[in-house]
Amino acid sequence: MPLDKIKTAVIWILLSFLFFSPSVNSSPEEGLPRRIVSLGSTLTEELYLLGAGDNLIADTLYCQRPPQAKLKEKVGTIIAADLEKIVSLKPDLVLATSLTNPAVKEKLKNLGIRVVDFPLARNFQELCGHFVELGKVVGKEDAAKKIINSSREKIEALKKKIQGLPKPKVFMQMGANPLFAVTKDYFLNDFIEFAGGINIAAQAKSGLYSREEVIRQNPDIIIITAMGLLAEKEREQWFTFSGLNAVKNSRIYVMDTYKLCGPTPVSFVEALEELIEIFHPRS
Amino acid sequence: MKSNKKITRWCIYLFVLGIILLGISLLSLCVGSAAIPVRKIISLLSKASDSAEYSILFNIRLPRIILGFAVGGALSISGVILQGMFRNPLVEPYTLGISGGAALGVVLSIIAGLSRRLGGISLPVSGFLGAILVIILVFYLSIRKRVLRIQGLLLYGVMISFVSSSLIMLLMAISGADELRGIVFWIMGSLEQPNWLLIKTAVWVSISGLIIAYFFSLQLNALSLGEEDARALGINVENTKKVLFLLTSVLTGMSVSICGIIGFVGLIVPHFIRLLVGNDQRILLGASFLCGSSFLILSDTLARTIIAPTELPVGVITGIIGGSVFIFALTKFK
Amino acid sequence: MNTLLEIKGLTCGYDARFFIQEINFSLEEKEFVGIIGPNGSGKTTFLRAITRFLKSQKGTVIFKGRDVRQIGFKEFARKIAVVSQNQPVNDITVEEFVLLGRIPHFEKMQFLETAHDFEIARKVMSLTQTSKFKDRLMRELSGGERQLAFIARALAQEPQLLLLDEPTTHLDIGHQVAVLDLLKKLNRECGLTVIIVLHDLNLASEYCQRLVLMREGRIYKAGHPDEVLSYQIIEEVYKTVVVVEKNPISLRPYVLLVPEEERRARSKKYGKEE
After folding, report:
1. If you count residue pairs, one on B and one on C, with CB atoms under 8 Å apart, how many are there?
2. Do residues B101 and B135 lie in contact, with contact meaning Cβ atoms separated by under 8 Å?
């Protein structure tokens, strides 16, 4: 007897789908966005670079640069965005990153708000591509292209400067316990290459790297980034391996996460200059 | 007569719990980081509008309330049924390994890049498939000579949970950073579900589950005496065990696939309600459903308003509130 | 008097081991039968085979002309009730506990107890002297009181045949007598047929019209207590020395155990005779 009821219930479920009404999907307005919400600190910075900072109405708690960005309305963190806040601000464009909660992105789209996704760039080339894309979206394509070209020129100049200089062996890490190295799949690798260094972990399949392997490879320089408060501890840890070249010459550096891990085409160049200083110190 | 007294008491419980559910739902509708004054809400309720406020009420808050109703209820009655079947107060919906299987399914689909190709619905679907596989596995491992062994369900369920967690940690370790974040979102548990089809599914499965459970409420009452005695009372124990196991598995699988892992609801709500209304399944099921729904909706409301504009994972709130209220109730009643 | 139960060639057990073998047994209505035997002789298995909790490998159990395997669960529960070994029960009042016995009588779509159900519960509780506990929790009762509640629940099923598995084992003498007196009264006045597994040979002798003595899975001897409780048979089956006297009050056989000291004293007194 209960089995009959189960069958009835299943039929119920199937019938209910007949009443399924798809949610309202009004098409977004065309035209240049005037009310932009940014869900990524890099995107916020880039907006200001493009001169579209005035159209930014809200950003995340972590959008600290440039200083004007701190004063904007806040809509949450990079990972957890407050949907209600965003909708109540009536934006016409939301800039999302790969860190944004996919459910939030989809919800915004369902509500008819235009969302443009900017996945993590894997190298400088992609970084430029995304920048131009952003420029197109906010109507500042020309400005974008100009900035890119200027950065490219500067980089070429820097590359010429260090041409012929010996290339130090570099190990760059993004995490400890487990040890996470920068391989060629991460755009940080471009920093190392452009600055004239050899990334010992470039060919590794995944970022998970063994400390023994690092010791075996004996890099000249170790760079620690993206580790926040633990970076100093990690640096001390490395100093216990007195055999390493990097230790002997005291060339273990902790670098600013903002600059290195969330670069705009402009800050990329600045960071590159810093790295070149580190790799090829003037004697 | 006696019968009437009991029925009256039950009706009162259900009525009061229903009112509480309604109250909490309305509260949840009125509260949020975009502060909308109550008068505005009342006017919006009567006529549709294009405004952002209308969107917020009906497209952001309401779906969460509805989903909270469905999933809170589903997890609670799963807890009630399992605690009744196993006669063990520590059993809850995730004990049978279903959440592990669903999580594994989601992780595998994220790593295979399916979510990029098939869109948002790929996660709940793969989660549910993972859950089904675990259900089938645990079921067949626990059947000996056509008899479903309860201890087997528990043992295999717990083992599969451990194995799934280890596999997930392994996959997380070797996968790329991008994919990792997708997994974390899902595991944290959230009532944020953009797809209305899934929300509707949740409601129908949940309510159907409650109705089916009621058809087995007498059997569950008898099972509390032990399998042998239940059989002596004329219950088809094997059938009952199988149907109830499948029912709770589907309810839990659905909840986990659509909302991720929201713990404590299935464990605490049955206990709490039992302290209030007793052990009779006929009232326990309905009361737990209503209480679980209220609890989850309330927890979700807190999760999205306490540290606005950031949102806490709802599982954190259910754990803290649920745990504290429960400890308080236990000490008071004993 | 009609045949209530007919068992032919019943053999039952788990896997390769058989707990009871080739049991032939028939039961008339209104009988009061006691099953006795040493530990492990298959008494409990016998009961479980009747209620089909154990699948039988061979043989048949016929209840009122119908093979027990053809009778549906619910219908079976309306005819035969079991009082099993006293198990722990969780938080449930005595009245709710007894009402569970009405489940076999619920109609297809019935969900709540009817006035009739409450009436039956009230009746069986007064029969078993448990009315005064009806709102107490089961776990608050003493062993004897709980046993009476279990019997009340079984009676609420309104069975024709009542099976009991050692209901008096943990009870004091007062409660033992109370339980058995109740069963005897139900048997005499209400026509309830009883099969009771007993540990205590004297209780069995006192209350049962017929005894079935089991040994190693088979029926060793069945019949009136006078026939079954002879000292030779008991010594053979239980492997201990006993003396069987006549109970001066009821004239039923009364089994006296003989401690070792007495045995040695007597063999000295009477030489090597035993």
Report:
1. 65
2. yes
* Max mean pLDDT range (B116-130, B158-172, B283-297): B283-297
Out of B192, B212, B310, the one facing A104 most closely (by C-beta) is: B192
Residue A105 and residue A182 in one domain: no
Interface membership of B39 toward C (CB under 8 Å): no
* Domain C3-224 of CATH type 3.40.50.300: yes
CB contact under 8 A, C77 and B282: no
What is the ipTM score, two decimals? 0.84
Mutate to test the interface with C, among B2, B85, B238 (most CBs of C within 10 A): B2
* Residue A68 lies in domain: 36-119
Tell me which residue of A125, A156, A129 sits closest to A144, measured CA to CA: A129
Whole-angstrom Cα distance, residue B41 to residue C150?
Answer: 58
Among candidates A195, A144, A137, which has minimal Cα distance to A170?
A195
Test the B interface: residue of C90, C102, C110, C123 with most B CBs within 10 Å: C90
Q: Which domain holds residue B63?
A: 23-333
Label residue A15 by pLDDT band (50, 70, 90). Answer: low
Provide the shortest C-alpha distance from residue C5 to chain B (in Å).
Answer: 17
**Nearest residue in chain B measured CA to CA from C155:** B233
More confident of the two residues B197 and A259: B197
Chain B residues near residue A61 by CB distance under 8 angstroms: 309-310
Q: What is the pLDDT of residue A23?
A: 45
Provide the CATH number for the domain around residue A45.
3.40.50.1980
Q: Which residues of B touch A6 (CB under 8 A)?
A: 212, 243
Read off the pLDDT of each residue in B53-75 and give the average, rounded to a whole number. Answer: 90
Q: Are residues A189 and A242 in the same domain?
A: yes
Give the CATH number of the domain where residue B177 resides. 1.10.3470.10
Is A148 within the bounds of a domain?
Answer: no
B5 lies in a domain? no
pLDDT of residue A3: 64
Choosing from A83, A100, A119, the residue where a domain stops is: A119
Most confident segment among A208-212, B177-181, B286-290: B286-290
State whether B212 and A5 contact (CB < 8 Å): yes
B45-78 burial: b if 16+ Cβ within 10 Å, else e: eeeeeeebbbbbbbbbbebbbbbbbbbbbbbbbb
> Is C224's pLDDT higher than 90?
yes
In a domain, B147, yes or no: yes
Chains that touch B (3 or more CB pairs under 8 A): A, C
The neighbour count for residue C129, using CB atoms within 10 Å, is 13
What is the C-alpha to C-alpha distance for residues A93 and A78, in angstroms, rounded to an integer?
16
Beta carbons of C112 and B278 less than 8 Å apart: no
Q: Do the domain assignments include residue A196?
A: yes
The reply to whether B1 falls in a domain is: no
In B63-173, which ranges are E strands?
Answer: 143-144, 147-148
Residue A4 placed within a domain: no
